[in-house]
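Quick one: structure for this chain?
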Amino acid sequence: MVRKSFVLILSLLAVLAAAGLARAEPLFGGARGPLLRPGAALVEVSAPAGAAAGGSLFAGRARAGLFAPVARRPVAGRAALPGPFASAAERIRHLIARAEAGKRGYDAVQHGARIKPPRRPTAMTIGDIYDWIDATPGQPHAIGRYQFIPATLRRLVATLGLGERTRFSPAVQDRLADLLLDEAGLAQMTRGQLSRTGFMNNLAKIWAGFPNSSGRSHYHGYAGNHATMSWAQFDAAMREIFPG
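Got it. Here's what it folds into:
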């Protein structure tokens, strides 16, 4: 009797144990899913927005590789060639730069200056340029695309009412040059009150790189100045701007 009771108790315990195991949740599963799903990676990496699907280490980096096209940066100080519909003043300014500044353009400094400015001219203020001039006496100080000398620069800046904190930017340099074009008689020439040759001779009195009608710079031999183009070249360029 005792033996039968013992067997009955063991059977009952076995049934209860089986029922409990059936209800138990797996250690790494349950309603939230297993910790490591079949086929899932240990660490999921989100692809950058816009990246192409695929398993490459460099997916989404098509424009950042060693052989990606290099973006062209504008050359500091350079000005684009004026187009066919550019104003007469713009085309003359380009011709002045060709005669005076060379490749440095708006950042040109007179080659005879032993002590150059501490920064590119276009990154300096007008006050910075005055400080450089005052700190380096006894040397040439022509500066910028139009090679302004100190006295002329100060006069033009005062005429425009510019403050010393004004940056010596390309736009500011163009405005200063336009004052000189007006002084040379650009308006009178366009109205027929001044001949093209007369206007060219006036330009040569302002910019030593231009020849006058004698074929030489108005300042030939002075402080090493000389014309950087022939009269024929100067005349041909001006005829393109002012035909007839």
